[in-house]
Amino acid sequence: MHRVSPVFLLAALVVGICHADDLPRSTPEAQGIAAADLVALVDALDAHGDAASADGVHSVMLVRHGHVVAEGWWAPYTAAHRHQLYSLSKSFTATAVGIAAAEGRLSADDTVLGFFPDEAPAEPSANLRAMRVTDLLRMATGQQTEPPRKEGTGWIRQFLAHPVPFKPGTHFLYNTAATYMQSAVVQKATGLTLLDYLGPRLFAPLAIEGATWEESPEGISTGGFGLSIRTGDIASFGQLLLDRGQWRGRQLVPAEWIDAATSRQVANGSNPDSDWDQGYGYQFWRCRHGAFRGDGAFGQFCVVLPQEDAVVAITAGTRDMQGILTILWRHLLPALRAAPLPPDDAGNARLRERLAALAVPRPGAGAPPAALVGKTFRFPDNAAGIESLRLEPTRGEGDAAAHLVLASAGGEQRIPLGTDRFVASSVAWGGKPPEPAAVALGREGEECVVRICFVETPYVTTLRLRPDGTGVRLSGGTNVGFSPTKFPDLVGTSTTE
Questions:
Q1: Domains detected in the chain
Q2: pLDDT digit string (tens) for 314-341?
Q3: pTM attached to this predicted model
Q4: Cα–Cα distance, 279 to 346 (Å, whole number)
Q5: Contact 1/215 with Cβ under 8 angstroms?
Q6: Pick from 245, 240, 242, 226: which is nearest to 82 by CA?
Q7: Alpha carbon 496 to chain centroid, angstroms
Q8: 51 near 37, Cβ under 8 Å?
């Protein structure tokens, strides 16, 4: 379940700003970067991934010396869209712990069991009794496997019941349940969810509006995932980290906490070429080249480069997260000069044009095969829950060139399709409630292709329809996922002649 804090509803009424973030803008040259170098960076990011499945980057924002010097969104993603952060949420959770510690609500040295006596096992082990909040922060709880989060049992109780075979602080294990426990600790200590606690203390000062955070069945912000904010909000958070917790003359987070959180607190590998083996802080990863970052599944990044006084915010839907970081090291690092450069109006015009042209790959041009238009195709029982579909010509409704009428157990939905653009819509898929989406239609060979961008998530679904006798063969998949991304082929039978 998602929640929106009331503080954001009020802020949306009283705060008037030009951008979704509160950062000033500048030409790249004024901040020591050539526009041509940023064009090359954007080209590399645009080429990253797989166009056939729409695996790729969704947005990028670069901040140098406190100024945004480049920002772009791959249409239909926009600056106004929130984006699921997945594990980048963890860095915000740790920041909440730091603020609560500064307010005297808790200490990083507090034992975890001390907050939850009612959920503790009858005979807690010595290692569980020794586990501290700082062990949660460092992903060094002493657990060998991540505790489950099963329905019907509280997540706190499941965490505390899980074996702790190692002495806390000695064994790194990437552990989303440990981040949930940090959220639970903050809520226990303050009486507020993470979303409500961070609202006036972090989000409102940074002009982060409309944030949502999923909650557990216990009514606790999920902590390790579930936060959705805009690209500009990620950039503002990165600038706060770069400035050691200070924002517009206010110390929002203690500098000492930021220093500790972004330093190497525990070893997590030894591969010098991997940005996942450089050490782990308090819910932050150390990177090569003296950088650190928060990150989330499928390419949600807040990368901070203290030596270069720079921040990079990225959202994406990609399988290759290391590839994105490698692009930054290859193209961005050499472009960051110590002194301003001469103005370059022509170069900046090219950069603006390049950023404005970014787009998720649309299907090829062309009308769908006539055999697929105006007919209803019914499908046997399937895991996707699709009962029937029909392609209808447009009735002059807005920008839609056609409609996909899709029936499932959740009912029938009529989805507008654009041929030369993505058309905004709301789409229910995979048994989930309707989500904001943008949809395009095209043709590739004998296939009709429908691409659905779920614009507040990393996910892009591609459906391929091919005539199959008097029926239709449906195939496709998603760009990314935690389970297989290719859909099993389905054959539908025409019921309309």
A1: 2-102+180-356 (3.40.710.10), 370-494 (2.40.128.20)
A2: 999 999 999 999 999 999 999 999 999 9
A3: 0.94
A4: 42
A5: yes
A6: 226
A7: 42
A8: no
